[in-house]
């Protein structure tokens, strides 16, 4: 085995609605790659919503080039027509260079859309306001309107801030941040 393995990462833009087809294609293509001399392993990864990566590793530059220039690989690329298109190809020699090249800081997740935030906030605020109006305010009818409103705001804000919102955010996490869920396990990372 050569002392300088080569890792190749190919980024693809997958057509809308074709993610499952690309995922199947990627693993089948890696299965064919596994029969090539010098193949060390590989995987199919998703990066965000649209960019997918097929990563494979060979014992050296020669076996990697032999696979990439083979008729079998050309047939696999032809099967990808209408499913995805190649966006970028990166070849990194050696293991250390691979890990050094991957030390970019990840982007923070995109904030949820405004209507989703509105829904979660309404789900947290409406029940305690209704409950307070039905149970407490009838007993405070003689109190100044300013003090009643202040008391309502203090109680509801405390209840929403420390009790309801943390629980609702945990409950709605997958709905609010679907891109994080995709990275964390909806598309499991496997290796051949």
What are the defining features of this structure?
192 residues, alpha+beta, Alpha-Beta Plaits, 8 helices, 53% helix, 19% strand, disordered C terminus
Quick overview:
By secondary structure, the protein is an alpha+beta fold. It is built from eight helices and four strands; from the N terminus they run βαββααβααααα.
Tally of DSSP helical segments:
8
Structural category: alpha+beta
How many beta-strand runs? Answer: 4
- Known CATH architecture of the largest domain: 2-Layer Sandwich
Q: Roughly what is the average pLDDT, rounded to an integer?
A: 82
> Into how many domains do the coordinates divide?
2
- What portion of the residues fall into strands of 2 or more residues? 15-25%
CATH topology title of the largest domain:
Alpha-Beta Plaits
Overall CATH class of the largest domain: Alpha Beta
Describe it:
- By secondary structure, this protein is α+β, with helices and mostly antiparallel strands.
- It has two domains: 6-105, Alpha-Beta Plaits, CATH 3.30.70; 114-176, no CATH class.
- The chain contains eight helices and four strands.
- A four-stranded antiparallel β-sheet has the order 2-3-1-4.
- Helix 1 packs antiparallel against helix 3 (71-79) and helix 5 (114-135) crosses helix 6.
- The longest helix has 27 residues, at 145-171.
- The chain crosses the membrane at residues 117-140, 146-165.
